[in-house]
Model the fold of this input.
Amino acid sequence: MSNPKIYVVGLGPGGVEQMTQRAIKALQECDVIAGYHVYIKLIKDDFADKTFLSNGMRKEVDRCKLALEEALKGQTVAMISSGDAGVYGMAGIMCQVCKDHPEVEIEVVPGITAACSGAAVLGAPLIADFCTISLSDLLTPWEKIEKRLDCASKADFCIALYNPSSIKRHDYLQKACDIMLKNQPGTIPCGIVRNIGREGEAYELTTLAELRDKQVDMFSTVVIGNTQTEVINGRMVTPRGYRL
Amino acid sequence: MSNPKIYVVGLGPGGVEQMTQRAIKALQECDVIAGYHVYIKLIKDDFADKTFLSNGMRKEVDRCKLALEEALKGQTVAMISSGDAGVYGMAGIMCQVCKDHPEVEIEVVPGITAACSGAAVLGAPLIADFCTISLSDLLTPWEKIEKRLDCASKADFCIALYNPSSIKRHDYLQKACDIMLKNQPGTIPCGIVRNIGREGEAYELTTLAELRDKQVDMFSTVVIGNTQTEVINGRMVTPRGYRL
Done:
């Protein structure tokens, strides 16, 4: 008998069109697809013959344990993540949950993460060195997030902000902007992208100073430019030093 | 007549299997595919009915000008990039070259960048906040790269190093490690991935102290963990704070 197998698959930003061929093949090959119910809904119709295991937000550890159980029973399991499974996704926790089962083969199938899909909507803001920072302090202490915002803006990185806001954290983006504004000019171009790759996709260009007072929702990704970033024909572009 | 149209398409790490459905569709819809000849070769057989425009390394500006000329003649053009067109790729320079032609519609189609495809091979090292830093000083002054290495390691970011080495820059990785070692312990897990998504794909786990004296080639991506990163069953994993 072959080893138990778990795929951890990044769906990219939206539905099946944004998945790689490799990701589609992984879902076709598995018996069970596990995931957060919102993401299961996105792909369910395209893989209708599969068994689905879904649960709610913040039940990530339970979801991985259920997936492991199925794999140990001999089922090939695909654990899905929105975006890239390896960026704020399920790949890490799946490896951790399987720690005592080295016989389980875990194959991580990457997808397009929101920094990349959001940047594509805006133009080309992350063309050079950039950071991703999540503003959610559920899993990372806020002091560490502050330190990262400070260091990243000091070094003139472009920055993609994940989880920029939620009902409980409505002022976190404002706090984050205040930290970055200590190191960078308020004129730096910024972009907000909503519902990337899904119905209602929209973007807005602004500046770091103005971003401070914007309301963004939990379906948004925010991109902060650096001192090189320009707006060209309504798109946000960070030049990379080519001579034109 | 509709506006001139240029797609800038990220191929992901390897051949067609690593592309998104959306990227494949963009290449199918265009008349002309433009790109660096090595990448054209990767996909040529799958889109054999297209016209190809290819040239050599460091001819990026010329390549974009040629693509623009074709688009202005009424051809739908796809400019391809390895990985993600928006991360050290062609999306930025394409927008810059089209600056005086606001009528040209530029659609950036994202792909899987090497940070994400490399991380997937290694396990889940970039699961939380991370930076991408290119060690090539062709387009960015070395002092700026040093500052970014210093700030990123001070803030305990995981780091994906692009262009970690070349014949002319054989000691840049060593210099980079020396900067990071001032801020981070030498025991931090690191990974080197070669030929991601292509023939000869291989990876090696090491530590920051050991990485300093490794020889890596220009087909490699290097991932530096943070103080949380562990090796679990031979994979590099950065936990994200979940309680197991």
In short: Residues 194 and 220 of chain B are 4 Å apart (CA to CA). The longest helix of chain B spans residues 60-72. Chain B has a mean pLDDT of 95.
